[in-house]
Each structure stands twice: as C-alpha cells, then as structure tokens.
Design goal:
The chain has twelve helices and three strands. The radius of gyration is 20 Å and the shape is globular.
Length: about 300
C-alpha cells in the first residue's frame, strides 16, 4: 500500500519537474566541490561518519526529471531545455572524474529521449556527441588513458596498469565452469574486488555456470522492467519504468563488461551484488519504484474489471 501511495505523490510532483532536476544537480555539485577522492575520482561525501555516494540516488531523481519533462511535450523547446539540464548533470560528473556514472546518465537520457520522441535523428546526434565526448575524455584525463591502454593490452604491463584486469581474467579462467568452491579462491589479489570486480571473485569461486545464471537473473529483471513499462498507459509512468530499467542494465553491462575485458573498466558497481551501502539502497529503491508501478497497473485493471461487472 505504501509504494503506490508514494508513486501517486510522484505524479503530483510531475507538475514541478525542477524539483527533481535541481535537487539532483545540487547533490552532484556538493560532491564535486567537497567530495572524497578515491582512485582519482570524487565519488562520496561523509555524513555523520558514514560515506554517502549521491550519484547512486541522483540517477533516480534524474530519471524522474526527464520523465516529467517529456510526458507533457516533446517539442524542440522542451527537448532543448531537458538536454541542457541533462548535459549539466553529465558535465558535473565528468568534472568529478566519475566517468562511469556520467556514461550511465548519458545513455539513460539518450534512450529515454528516443522512446519519448521516436526520432532516429536525435538518437544519431546523441550517439555522435557521445563518441566525440569519449575522444575528448581520453585526451583530457590520464586515468581514462590508463584504463583504455590496460584494456587494449594488459599483458604489456601486467605488474602495473594491466594488473587489475589481468588478475580478473586469471580469476575467471581459474574458476572454470564449476568454480573452486567458497573461500577456496584468491579474490584478494584483485584490487577493489569487493566493488568493481566482484563478478571476477564470483566466477573464480562459484564457476562460470553460476556466473551465467547471475547474468540471466539481471537480464530477467531488466525484461520485467521493460514489460511493466510497455503495459503502463500513462507516459509519465512508462518513461520512469523504462528509465530506471535502463540505468540498471547499463550499470550491469559496464561492470561485467569491464571485468571480462569486453570494454574498458569504468569503476561502477554491480547492482545488489557489490559491496556498498549507497549502491544497494539505491538499487532497492529502483526495484521498489518499479514494483509500485506494477501494483498501480494491477489496481487500475481491477478497477476497470469491477466497473465492467
């Protein structure tokens, strides 16, 4: 009962979309100005002795902001304003050197824009802008160049910049199909294994079959998000379900793709699996919001059925 009530209040807040946009942007600016630096990026702030990563929660407010803007109108003026605010979110994350989160925000906005407008032109322009931004990021940030070089050829500097990804690949290969068993592996050899590279530790100890099942679970959750989005009649709710589902699956792809050397490592966590209170709590909120949308849809269908009776 609580979740549909909260989602109904979110519908009321759709009348003032700047609440979502301004709060999210303000939180990111706070991190950019006074955040704690870890591995070259400003990711978190300390509150009462606890470390808090605002970008994990701003992803949610960002999706709500885009949904509130696009559900009424997708004329050029609305798109231009929304794009400017979305670009501000991404720019602040880039300034904080949190490029993994910046990529999640960018892809989420681009796909939500495509779903709202159905325009391949916007999708193409956005993809081109993203490619140009990637080249600029490679030129400006040394840690981006380091990660790309480690991705292209980790074996040339296996004890240096290629150490993390090479150890990840060794762990995955050592685990085989059935794994070495719990506590039988050596995940501590991989830097930041409990966060960015937890999938490697799982593959080593639990095996490839277990890892594939984990991937299928993630894909199943994403498909459920998309099915709920497709069933929602209100454009506002449809965009929210689609946007949150996109943030989830993009984060999964970046994490698993990074540890398997499919793409360069981006430093994002695996939802519901990696260590980190902010990541777990924000993912829990995402799932509950989408569950709330499903409950609202079921309630609407039951009311329509009762009226027909």
């Amino acid at each position: 009962m609580i979740i549909p009530f909260i989602m109904d209040r979110a519908w009321q807040l759709s009348k003032i979309p700047w609440v979502y946009g301004s709060i999210g942007l303000a939180l990111l600016l706070v991190v950019c100005v006074m955040g704690n630096t870890a591995f070259g990026a400003q990711l978190s702030i300390n509150i009462g002795g606890f470390s808090f990563q605002p970008s994990e929660f701003v992803k949610i407010s960002f999706v709500f902001f885009v949904a509130t803007m696009f559900y009424r109108s997708v004329d050029f003026r609305t798109i231009a304003i929304t794009t400017a605010v979305a670009a501000a979110h991404v720019l602040v994350l880039v300034m904080s050197k949190d490029l993994g989160s910046a990529l999640i925000f960018f892809v989420t906005y681009l796909l939500m824009l495509f779903v709202a407008t159905g325009s391949w032109l916007y999708l193409g322009l956005g993809a081109g802008s993203g490619a140009a931004a990637a080249v600029i990021a490679y030129s400006l940030f040394s840690h981006v160049r380091t990660r790309v070089e480690a991705w292209l050829d980790p074996w040339s500097d296996i004890s240096g910049k290629g150490y993390q990804i090479s150890q990840s690949l060794f762990a995955i290969g050592t685990g085989g199909w059935f794994g070495m068993g719990l506590y039988q592996g050596m995940p501590s050899k991989i830097p930041v294994v409990e966060k960015d590279f937890v999938f490697s530790a799982i593959s080593e100890e639990m095996g490839g079959i277990y890892s594939i099942c984990l991937i299928l679970i993630c894909l199943g959750c994403f498909m459920q998000f998309m099915m709920i989005a497709a069933k929602m009649q209100a454009v506002f709710y449809k965009l929210i379900a689609f946007g949150l589902g996109t943030t989830y699956i993009v984060q999964v792809f970046l994490t698993i793709g990074g540890v398997t050397k499919f793409i360069p490592s981006t430093g994002v966590t695996l939802p519901f699996v990696s260590y980190g209170g902010s990541s777990i709590l924000s993912t829990f909120i995402v799932f509950n919001v989408v569950q709330g949308l499903y409950i609202l849809k079921r309630n609407e269908e039951e009311e329509d059925y009762d009226e027909e009776e």
